TrEMBL record:
The protein's name in its UniProt record: CBM6 domain-containing protein
GO molecular function terms attached to this record: carbohydrate binding
Signal sequence region: none
Stored SUPFAM superfamilies: Galactose-binding domain-like
UniProt cross-references to Gene3D superfamilies, sorted A to Z: Galactose-binding domain-like (2.60.120.260)
Domain CBM6: 99-231
Length: 231
């Protein structure tokens, strides 16, 4: 299965169901120039009910385009695994990249989706309150798909009606925790934006914003999340 974003010149290919050393032939790349950046990601098979970590980068390289085509090796495949090939022009996407991810469409744990005309898509996530123990940990996991491995600006649209600064933990792809501070807004459901920098791999990444989470000491105060925007 493949998808092509013509405005940004990004090709995503998803494959699986075979084992051993294979290859993927990607056609129609004449407008990408003489070379392209190719990243291959993998997720192991885990059964229907077992969570897996973020994808592993198998390879990332620059490949020459011949007659609008590249043939990408995908080696060491397992029949149970899933694989992604990301192709962009060698200099990166040709236009400024930006993507919005709504909190209500993310994986929401021990929190609630609420409606508001002030929210960017009519809904947001509130009640991100639990931090005492693993049974009550509250967090939002965003699964994002980015074109290249680099640092991105992540704009968090949030509300904080406590009257003072609140905090969440931020981690991505199972990495180290940092703290995001949310200055008070005009009230609950009254949104502002906080910008942070995240270093992401090409393809899929998982970004967690948490009041409480395993291996995180816990946030302070309370904050609601409307969306994140990566650029």
């Amino acid at each position: 299965m493949a998808a092509y974003d013509s405005s940004r010149k990004i090709v995503n290919v998803v494959l699986g169901g075979d084992s051993g050393n294979n290859s993927v032939r990607v056609n129609g790349l004449g407008s990408f120039g003489s070379s392209v950046q190719v990243t291959v990601n993998a997720v192991p098979g885990s059964g229907r009910n077992t969570q897996v970590s973020a994808p592993t980068v198998l390879s990332s390289s620059t490949m020459n385009v011949s007659n609008g085509t590249v043939t990408v090796p995908v080696n060491g495949m397992t029949a149970e695994g899933a694989y992604q090939v990301v192709v962009t022009p060698a200099g990166g996407p040709t236009s400024s990249w930006q993507q919005v991810y709504e909190a209500e469409n993310a994986n929401v744990v021990n929190a609630q989706t609420r409606g508001s005309s002030a929210a960017s898509n009519g809904s947001y996530v509130g009640g991100i309150d639990g931090s005492a123990d693993m049974r009550s940990h509250s967090f939002v996991d965003f699964t994002v798909n980015v074109p290249t491995a680099r640092s991105y600006t992540m704009a968090i649209r949030y509300a904080n009606g406590t009257g003072s600064t609140s905090t969440h933990g931020l981690a991505y792809n199972g990495g180290a925790w940092s703290t995001v501070s949310y200055p008070a807004t005009a009230g609950w459901g009254q949104f502002s934006t906080r910008n942070v920098t995240v270093s992401l791999r090409a393809g899929y990444n998982v970004i967690r914003l948490a009041k409480g989470s395993p291996n995180f000491s816990g946030g302070t105060g309370y904050a609601e999340i409307d969306s994140i925007t990566l650029s």
